[in-house]
Amino acid sequence: MITFQETVDIAERLAEMLKSATDLKTALKDTTEDMAGLLSMLEDSHEKDFTDAGASLRYIDNVLIPQLIGIRDSLGAGTEGHLKRLNTARELAERLVVRLRMLENGAVGDLLG
């Protein structure tokens, strides 16, 4: 049997978990800005006067690749926890829907007793 209070608790937990969507949006916006900066660096590299292929490769190795790795790592750190919370919220919502469907169909007599 599920009580009305348990149903309210689930709804409150869902609302709290769904706040992760806002945090995820912020993390993605930050990554988009970082990618724009990398794109600018790539475009600027065409205007640099590299003396030889070695200088170009050093720029790639010392500047561009570390920047790209940093963006990848920031994206992972900024999104992983939020995605897990959103997945948990989805699972919780699915369980709540099953409970409410049982109530709607009269499958459980005093479900919200």
Could you please describe the fold and organization of this structure?
With 113 residues, this protein is mainly alpha-helical. The protein has one domain. It has three helices and no strands. The chain has helices at residues 4-18, 20-45, 53-104. The chain is rod-shaped. 4% of the residues are buried. The mean pLDDT is 88.
By DSSP (H or I, 4+ residues per run), the number of helices equals 3
Please bin the fraction of helical residues.
over 70%
Q: Any idea how many domains?
A: 1
Distance between the termini: 8 Å
Overall average pLDDT: 88
Share in β-strands? under 5%
The tally of beta strands, per DSSP, is 0
**Low-confidence sequence ranges:** none
The class by helix and strand makeup works out as mainly alpha
Q: Determine Rg (CA atoms, Å).
A: 25 Å
Q: What is the string of SSEs from the N terminus onward?
A: HHH
Q: Please outline the major beta sheet.
A: none
Shape: rod-shaped
Give a quick set of tags describing it.
single chain; 113 residues
TL;DR of this structure?
With 113 residues, the protein is mainly α. It contains three helices and no strands. The protein has one domain.
Summarize the helices and strands and which ones pair or pack.
Layout: H1 4-18, H2 20-45, H3 53-104
Helix pairs in contact: 1-3, 2-3
